[in-house]
Amino acid sequence: MTVSVILAHKGKDIVTIQPEGTLGAAVASLAEHRIGAIVVVDSHMAVEGIISERDVVRLIGERGVEALAAPLASVMTRSVVTCTPDETIPVIMERMTRGRFRHVPVVSGDKLVGIISIGDVVKFRVEEMERESAQLRDYIMSA
Ligand code: AMP
After folding, report:
1. Which of 13, 63, 91, 123 supports an S-S bond with 67, CB 3.0-4.6 Å?
2. Could you give the domains of the chain?
3. 3-46: pLDDT as tens digits
4. CB 67 within 8 A of CB 75
């Protein structure tokens, strides 16, 4: 199963922000959309960085509420680990575990085309396990 299957189910709506925006604007967008991370992109949808709720907590813990005025370009994570639509879910799970993050932007060519969260991956795995156990049950019943 590939990333593109998850994207097809959850739709291709992606919440993004530009690096000139402030941390406060990113926090407002996280709250509005009830999400845990926003991808920072340029005007061509190329990935420039990512800012997650963990960054917000750390920055406010370190600097206080003044951090909210900081431009994203100065506080975002710049070395973003991404994936492509044709990569498989176990590969993405491994990437999240190794990198200790819960979001992986999906890129095609130079452009952002989606984002996969740990919640998407867990939902997919639970559904897959339920399908497998139903198949096993059917097989045993019919034997
Ligand atoms: P998260 O677990 O996704 O809330 O992110 C934890 C930390 O990793 C934060 O500092 C994020 O900015 C960073 N981060 C989140 N996703 C990625 C990613 N795909 N590549 C690199 N860093 C990331």
Report:
1. 63
2. 3-142 (3.10.580.10)
3. 999 999 887 689 999 999 999 999 999 999 999 999 999 999 99
4. yes
